[in-house]
Amino acid sequence: MSATGTGSAGLCGEVEEQLAEVIDGTARPSLYEHIAGCDACRDLRHDAARAAEAAAAAGADFRPADDFAEALLRRIEAARPSEGATSGAVLRAVPEAGHREATDDARRGEATADARHGEAAADARDSDVRAGEAIDDARDSDVRAGEATADARTGG
């Protein structure tokens, strides 16, 4: 059930402004009560919690892109539903171009992690190539063994 009305719109803004405190569990209780009844704020809290988990999983050396905060705020602003919108409207609010921009921003922030994992991925591909070559060699050996068996049977 989506919360509507003048008071809840103000609380939506407070949830957005105090999102870090909401995620940390240090926000005032009335914000949590509002989130429980407001689909848009509940979705916002869920998305922010997922982003915080991803950043925490990236490790201590994680460094977001220089314009990460500004890009995130632009995306939040673009996704803000109009007054009286239902939760379904929130899902349709982010245009595809905004999604691509946010994805590009996130990728720039992941460049450090990608560089770390790039060598591991290259090593894995090299290992797959070596395994494929070993399988091909084994097949060739089986073919040669089969030919030798056929020669022995025919006396050739």
Protein architecture, described:
This is Zinc-finger domain-containing protein. Residues 97-145 have a biased composition (Basic and acidic residues). Residues 80-156 are annotated as: Disordered. The protein has 156 residues and is mostly helical. The chain has a domain at 6-109. The chain is 79% helix and 0% strand. The chain has helices spanning 6-17, 19-24, 29-37, 39-58, 68-79, 87-93, 96-109, 111-154. Helix 3 crosses helix 4 (39-58) and helix 5 runs antiparallel to helix 7 (96-109). The longest helix is centred in the last third of the chain and has 44 residues, at 111-154.
Largest sheet: none
Number of strands: 0
Q: What structural class results from the helix and strand content?
A: mainly alpha
Helices, by number, come to 8
Distance between the termini: 85 Å
Helix content: over 70%
What fraction of the residues are assigned to beta strands by DSSP?
under 5%
Q: List low-confidence stretches.
A: 1-6
pLDDT average, as an integer? 72
Protein name: Zinc-finger domain-containing protein
Region (Disordered): 80-156
Biased composition (Basic and acidic residues): 97-145
What does the secondary structure layout of this molecule look like, with pairings?
Blueprint: H1 6-17, H2 19-24, H3 29-37, H4 39-58, H5 68-79, H6 87-93, H7 96-109, H8 111-154
Task: Summarize the entry for a quick read.
This is Zinc-finger domain-containing protein. The chain has about 160 residues and is mostly helical.
